[in-house]
Amino acid sequence: MARITYIENNGKSHEVEVKDGLSVMEGAVNNMIPGIDADCGGACACATCHCYVDEAFLGKTGEQSDMEKSMLDFAEDVKPESRLSCQMQVSDELDGLIVRLPASQH
Amino acid sequence: MSIAEDTKAADLPDPYSIPLEELDPSNGDLFAQQKHWAYFERLRKEDPVHLSENEEFGRFWNVTKFKDIMTVDTSHQIFSSEPSIVIGDPPEDFTLPMFIAMDQPKHDVQRKIVTPTVSPMNLSNLEPLIRERVCTILDSLPVGEEFNWVEKVSIELTTQMLATLFNFPFEDRHLLPYWSDTATSSDQVGNNYIDDEERRRILWECYEYFVKLWNERKDAEPHMDFISLLAQNPDTKDMVSDPLEYLGNLVLLIVGGNDTTRNSISGGVLALNENPAEYDKLRANPDLIPNMVSEIIRWQTPLAHMRRTALQDTELGGKQIKKGDKVVMWYVSGNRDEDAIDRANEFLIDREKARHHIAFGFGIHRCMGNRVAEMQLRILWEEIMARFERVEVVGEPERLQSNFVMGFLQLPVVLHPKK
Fold first, then answer.
1. Which of A66, B265, B379, B410 counts the highest number of beta carbons within 10 A?
2. A43: distance to nearest CA of chain B, Å?
3. Quick check: A62 contacting B, CB < 8 Å?
4. Global ipTM
5. Considering its fold, how many domains does chain A have in total?
6. What global pTM score does this model have?
């Protein structure tokens, strides 16, 4: 279980508890947090669950796969801390994670 | 119905009346007559990854379930987009390289160069212009008398949009759908509207026209349009000297921006007429429009398939795919797959997770212009609902003979103004 804070592009913040094993994307979708579309349902295939990971957690969220890199290549406003939230799995280690959401996913 | 059409219809058997191994959904007439649905329904149930072989297209695998299509689409190291993304192979001396039919890394380079044209920021800049055009088109339509929606609305709106994305001379814009229709008229996608020689002649005219634009723009001020971006980028500045590759990318961008949205515009009108309860929901709550737009695109699936070619032996859905085999992802079938989409065979404008459809494809080749398509459809429906009680379909639609473009030639309608 991890407490995750999703911050929408307009500054609105949502703090929720997400079960281990789910993805950070699923944590948002299951809690109806706007700003994550996840058109492909979590297959790393559409880049519509793009988020920015808070610096403090960059070391804990794992590495991007080649596929994730390719998909992010075509997303908007990509930054060094960009990730696809469907590719980050929740564990106790991510307790306190903060992710910020881009202006639009599509 | 003419005798010729009668004969054609008789040639298309009920899919349940023939042996499974003979089932072949690639005949363009199946789609023109809307008989393909039953073929795919049977394949999804009985043989989801199905081998076909015919004179026209040779041997090819039909992938019909959402999940398997997703696997192929996201495994670009195994399933190549070269040399072609449609079932039929192009003639050796007229293979048009275009980034949709390229693998990494070249695909990424070329796609990235033109993407800014359809970025959210550029589109939000264009939104007022698109809305103004939509209003002009809708306000010029005859009210209370029959006309062809395809010609007066679907083609006109998408052509104007495309002209803007190319910064194409507006007075010549009718050339864009002409070239688009020519490009998609080919035995490579199961139709015989024009012969190959004529098709090439017309496409070379398109090339010549665009060479002129390229030369005007290569040293001009930077501008946000496909041609300026390609002509001024160091990675593509020599593309014009490879006529097939320049023409190939033109065809990609013209067809991609034209046929798809055009037919979703027509398909949405038809779907709402065939599902009056959904039209009622829309009238009661126009806020459903953005969700409805996704549902219309799923329902229409304007491009029925994309094809890949296996780069190695592999297994898919329990079948052994051999290196070099053609693999056809039938998006039009995946979008009706009940195992992936709840009540997939119903048109529901307030559907949950409406964006979870496969009409744009997935993976690195996912539709680049999806936002343009959604924006045009959204604005169009907002303005339709502001004006008309109903766009009534008053006759049978006439559809395109093609296993690729799910297109309309005619959709006769009558407009009823808001009371």
1. B265
2. 8
3. no
4. 0.92
5. 1
6. 0.95
